[in-house]
Give the backbone structure.
Amino acid sequence: MSRIETTFAQLKQDRRKALIPYITAGDPGLEITVPLMHAMVKAGADVIELGVPFSDPMADGPVIQKACERALAAGTGLRDVLAMVREFRRGDDATPVVLMGYLNPVECMGYERFAETCLEVGVDGVLLVDLPPEECDEIAPLFKERGVDLIFLVAPTTTDARIARIAKAASGYLYYVSVKGVTGSASLNVEEVAARVETIRNLAQLPIGVGFGIKDAQSAQAVSRVADGVVVGSALVNQVAEHADDPMAISRAVSGILADMRAAMDKH
Amino acid sequence: MTQRPDSTQSPDYGAFPDARGHFGQFGGRFVSETLMAALDELETMYRRLKDDPQFQADFDHDLAHYVGRPSPLYLAERWTGQLGGARIWLKREDLNHTGAHKVNNTIGQALLARHMGKKRVIAETGAGQHGVASATVAARLGLECHVFMGEEDIRRQRLNVYRMKLLGAEVIPVTSGSRTLKDAMNEAMRDWVTNVDDTFYIIGTVAGPHPYPMLVRDFQSVIGREAREQSLKQAGKLPDALVACVGGGSNAIGLFHPFLNDESVAMYGVEAAGDGVATGRHAAPLSDGRPGVLHGNRTYLMEDDNGQIIETHSVSAGLDYPGVGPEHAWLKDLGRVSYVAADDQEALAAFRELTRVEGIMPALESAHALAYARKLAPTMGKDQDIIVNLSGRGDKDILTVAEIDGINF
């Protein structure tokens, strides 16, 4: 069983939901990322989504755009991100790590080489925002052969027919984007999300994580009642920006938010 | 990746893109999931309307009575004489309403928006010509219009910014990244993803996710259809060569496409070499780039070793883009079109020369095509014909040229 499968199976058994933080790798500097990943696990993270910075993050709002700019200014490339995962694995062989980003840096490295390196360093899943299932026929087998999950987005605009198609291409979990918009935008509507998650469950067997618009313990708790996982990104990256010159403060602030979310989500 | 087509046998160029929007390995639809339904909807609507006689009649009517088509094919006799080679014909897209070829496409997309019941249109713009053309059709149809424009381009193209405001559009400055066309396109995509229910995104060039490269090409192909007919009538034969500038590449594909199956017609797409292709400070991905994925399609891009998009340089805001339409990428690999480059100095020289010799002030974008035609004509016979796409007029560039001349108004 993959780390992602094991994690979701264990959570199900414990009747808990996955807390999935996102940070942009190399933001604001390369050396901060691995310690921050360990800190997030300590604060209650079950899966880590690690953002690969890109010069043109079309699906991201201003918070993650600026995070990409800081990470790129610090010189973070895809090879560096893969090296961070390798380093993280020295201290943590259980927590799944999903790389999240855009297609071009991966295409530039070469799909086969990227997939092989993912396997080698211990990346468990890959979510490429601008790679829909329609375009992945030639790419998907390279990941599948190596047991690296390809994770796909489902949106409020996704038709039932497409959900079924996405579910067929996907493994690991599905990421439901709770609002029409970019990351860090409007607040989500829990009832709408609940209805959509129900629809997705009828069409797909995979666990469902929900992201976009989760800002605090309260929204994390509400979403955890209807989904299998809660993804939080911009709210954490905001803290990174605020304390950019103080790594200890970043770690404290991010851990604080996650610990609050964890406590709220685990309350029955 | 898809195999390169067999180069010994020419494909039927009219049959592309394929059903999924690919031109060989290029094109496609690389966007986040939220936009997939909107693109499906647009494609379905477009495929239905493009063969609908009423839609075509509406489009043709607007081109004739609002844009002022057909645009003339003008024999530049004096310039031809000075260059001492092939006859140079100018396809006068500068005479269109709003002063460039861009309006052919915005008329078409605005008709689509109306059929789809959208009340709001958005657009990205570099030089401002596409923004002006979008604001123009929005004013005419009573649609709300927001135009995204990089801060750097707003500075370079203040006149067009004010034109858009007069037309009732809101110009939204883009301060992310390099603050030019590519960033404006990112921001337009972000707006679209947020307001996808009531908003139509009018993309200004033959790039972006499928079906945009196809539908923008189809709307712009009126340029080549007219030029082909005019050449047969006025020169008594097909031209020997076509020359057009290539940023995203919509004026070029519009001129080239109706001639692609005419094997005797040579074609030259002219990219912006900025300070020179060898300096790395340019906007010429077909001359010095690699295939990659940006803005929803696979095409040639300017990128660094980590796959990050790099900044481009050109005196012409409309060519200052690190990618290019996927059909051009495909035509390059097939060898059907030759892609060359003209630098800032060559373009400025051509701008001045055409103005003085023919009394026609070209846009700095079009001046890149003229700069190459200037080199090409003397290498050809006097009985041969070159059509240069004069894609826009140069009024918008007067401030830029004056600044280079050290004149401040």
Q: What stands out?
A: Confidence is low (pLDDT under 50) at residues 1-7 of chain B. Chain B touches chain A at residues 1, 20, 28-38, 176-177, 182-183, 186, 189-190, 193-197, 290-296, 298, 301, 303, 305-310 (CB under 8 Å). Chain B is about 40% helix and 20% strand. The longest helix of chain B spans residues 33-50.
